[in-house]
Amino acid sequence: MANDEKLLKIISHYRKKLQKKIAEREYEMQQDNNDHYMIYNALGFTNKEGYQIDFQQNVGRYLYKYAGSLLEELVIKCMKEAYPNTKTKVKLPNTIDKSPKTVEIDCLVGNKAYEIKWKDATTDGDHIKKEHKRVHIIREAGYTPIRIMFFEPNREQAIKIQAKLKKLYKEVGGEYYSGEDAWKYLKRETGTDLKKLFKKSKE
User: Fold this and answer.
1) Helix (H, G, I), strand (E, B) or coil at 193
2) How many structural domains are present in the chain?
3) What are φ and ψ of residue 114, in 5° steps?
4) Which residues are CB-neighbours of 144 under 8 A, at least 6 positions away?
5) To bridge 123 with a disulfide, which of 52, 81, 157, 170 should be the other Cys (CB 3.0-4.6 Å)?
């Protein structure tokens, strides 16, 4: 089976799993107690609208989770295809303080330690501190921290956080690729045009 076919099969598998999960949750919601709709009513929403809002909130939560997991699995599959000695979910001991006990590398290719994100819309300042600690631990272990994030945030505060993260990676001798640069980087490193593959999966 060609690599593209293997990747398309993974996408199909995730699609079916997600649809099954959504159907299960929809059935559960139909049995739920909906007394909280009285608050929705007071704020100008009908029971029908309230149900749709709750349902879509659940769908969104599952969709974000599956989107991130799918993209991470596909990237790792591309890396493994190009570099058979690729390791995944490598844990390193925290050499800076006691919390957390370990930090995790999503994908390790030689001395390249990859952090794979489909997108990151966080606006939490603590995120910077945690990532600062993580990349320093990785660097001290002799690896080059590399962050690849395929979709950039839209909100101003989240954009600022990512700019700080990019600077942090550069300061420790790491690499940071986001948006179109991330897709190009993956293609350059593995030979797989994953963006093109996603478009093909819709056909």
Assistant:
1) coil
2) 1
3) -95, 135
4) 111, 112, 113, 173, 174, 175
5) 157
